């Protein structure tokens, strides 16, 4: 990706990497899953979910939406932004088994990079929400090492990056990126940005009311149905990450040759089927919580190619 020293860094980054010690746990709060759990069962609940999301997003009575279609989403204005060569990611030598080489960054460089990516998500979603006359509430990103406290319970590095809807913060141990590169064979700066954009997608879902409505439905669902609905939520976050990448590049010219391939590869490598094959040697679709590799690639690509939130309706489709 194309970033320079003059590019803005988000001020919503809290660095807790020096806070190493025992794991935290709050009274009454267990360590919840790394991402929002999404239950959807049947067309009736799906319709209710979409109606509730649109209601909170547009600020109108949901009864007025029963006979309306999904609204058009305004695209990011084509504001002229000075384009300069910037500081391109430093690519190291190719490592056997890893496509396209690797990005070499110090910890300070990595913090600067994730702060710049978060700043770009703020700029894009602020303008998109503003197109609806709504204010985008920016999430915080917490950098930690090993374990940290969250409103959702104890956050640990083994979870991977995750979003806690209770405190509206994104948590990430930057060592995950080394795992993404070496264990999941998904190196590259755009792959790293995709991970952040996916978690920000969950924040967008929270602001739209989708997360709360689905959590209510999940509590009424069995494990299998809850898993199936969570998959739809995760795939929508993948699509929203693609939408962000499209709109961000339109204005800031961030993408470089090979970046799209990095993102698609990352989406593929962290599909449930790929992870299950690595960890247990067999694929169990009923246990999927984030979607297969093919599904994650499809929805990320759909958002990336369209740049339209309306294309991210994973809830009203029989074909994921």
UniProtKB/TrEMBL annotation:
Subcellular location: Membrane
Residue stretches of biased makeup (Basic and acidic residues): 9-22
Domain of life: Bacteria
Region (Disordered): 1-32, 74-106
Topology with respect to the bilayer: Single-pass membrane protein
GO biological process: proteolysis
Chief site of localization: membrane
Keywords: Hydrolase, Membrane, Metalloprotease, Protease, Transmembrane, Transmembrane helix
A molecular function GO annotation: metallopeptidase activity
GO cellular component terms, A-Z: membrane
Entry keyword annotation includes Membrane: yes
PANTHER family: INNER MEMBRANE PROTEIN (PTHR30168:SF0), PUTATIVE MEMBRANE PROTEIN YPFJ (PTHR30168)
Protein name: Metalloprotease
Record-annotated membrane-spanning stretches: 36-60
